[in-house]
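Good day; I would like, with your permission, to put a structural problem before you. A protein sequence and the structure tokens that stand for its backbone fold form the material at issue. Thank you for your consideration; the sequence and its tokens are set out here:
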Amino acid sequence: MADWTRDAAADWAKGKDAQWLERGYGPWSIRVDGQFAGWGGFQREGDEADLALVLLPAYWGHGAEMFRGFMNRRAELGIGAVSILLPPSRSRTRGLARLGFAPDGELTYEGQRFLKFRALG
């Protein structure tokens, strides 16, 4: 987002919070040992849920644990198919197959190209 101002960030956060009311799920703030580590969770994209996980670099080693925790909660949240989007620069994607994800094309979001992977419910 080119115009990432304080107001734009506040609007973005409000939109993420509103997903909980609209869909019954949305992103969470992630804390590790009481410290803010990032955000992640499910968000509605078209007819399915997209799983996003954004961690500060100091917490990248926690990504797999967070991912498994989210995926374990998807049935409880009423989520079937799940997609994830990765930038094309993310070349190490073979491990996604072990997690149940398969390539599902590409898409452009706000002018940026992403690789899409999908896991069925």
Q: What stands out?
A: The two ends are 32 Å apart (CA to CA). The CA atoms of residues 65 and 82 lie 17 Å apart. The first helix runs from residue 6 to 23. The first strand starts at residue 27 and ends at 32.
